[in-house]
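Need residues for this backbone.
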């Protein structure tokens, strides 16, 4: 799926969310709260292909903030490489192809671990969570940004309509392929509820 949507992934996020994903990600990075001073801080952004969270984290943090983007999709990582290069941050952001369920990093290597809109695509979520715990330093922070069930009456029906009728059509128009976006909508429905 992601190899087919990589080039249009960020555009589709804007179209599907009406730009709201930008606000959600800003709040997400604010919650991560990377240090703004001279203290070193190392982030691991899993399923972070296009680099959105890593780039935001470096902008929010101090000069010794660095990030590793780990993604299973080489096509998503290629988009991320271009964005990191365009931002002039190749010296502070590394991109590595890897699986969330078997991270290629030593234990206790990272101050923060983020995964946004990616954990629902992991086959064995509990294994990915165990790996997150393994690579985080003692006192490190794990943050996950994900869709779930809408629990507001009427809004839930509007959300379903948008998800199943609008998003695949947007995918067809903007990316030339509705199927990957049908998958994304279905993966949200299969993801565990908030509780």
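Answer:
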């Amino acid at each position: 799926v992601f190899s087919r949507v990589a080039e249009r992934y960020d555009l589709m996020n804007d179209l599907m969310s009406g730009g709201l994903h930008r606000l959600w990600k800003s709040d997400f990075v604010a919650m991560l709260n990377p240090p703004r001073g001279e203290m070193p801080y190392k982030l691991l952004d899993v399923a972070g292909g296009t680099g959105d969270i890593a780039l935001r984290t470096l902008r929010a943090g101090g000069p010794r903030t660095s990030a590793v983007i780990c993604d299973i999709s080489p096509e998503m990582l290629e988009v991320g490489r271009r964005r990191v290069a365009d931002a002039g941050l190749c010296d502070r952001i590394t991109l590595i192809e890897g699986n969330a369920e078997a991270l290629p990093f030593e234990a206790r290597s990272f101050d923060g671990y983020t995964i946004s809109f990616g954990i629902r695509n992991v086959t064995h979520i509990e294994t990915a969570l165990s790996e997150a715990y393994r690579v985080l330093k003692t006192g490190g922070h794990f943050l996950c940004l994900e869709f779930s069930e809408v629990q507001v009456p009427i809004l839930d029906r509007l959300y379903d309509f948008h998800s199943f009728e609008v998003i695949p059509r947007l995918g067809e128009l903007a990316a030339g392929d509705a199927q990957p976006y049908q998958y994304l909508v279905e993966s949200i429905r299969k993801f565990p509820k908030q509780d």
